[in-house]
Amino acid sequence: MTTSPTWIRERPRLVGLAYTVLGTWEDAEDAVSEAWLRLHRVVDTPQEPRDVPAWLTVVVSRIALDAATTAAKRRESYVGQ
Fold first, then answer.
1. Which residues are CB-contacts of 38 (< 8 A; sequence separation ≥ 6)?
2. For 4-63, what is each residue's pLDDT tens digit?
3. Whole-angstrom Cα distance, residue 23 to residue 45?
4. Shortest CA distance to 17 belongs to which of 61, 59, 53?
């Protein structure tokens, strides 16, 4: 499976999606990079996605939501002045 053309085409949309959830470009880039790594782990395995853009959308969304939830929990549990 060749994922590079799909990745190049989908990346701006995925960064925008992650940015909408996370609010910073740095965090959005991190989420998209993590999705890229996960995609490469499943290429040429039985778990390889049939619809790569859809798979990437789900994975980036879940990574971004998890990061946003974790950040919110850290802010809630801060015991400071």
1. 59
2. 888 899 999 999 999 999 999 999 999 999 999 999 999 889 988 999 999 999 999 999
3. 34
4. 61
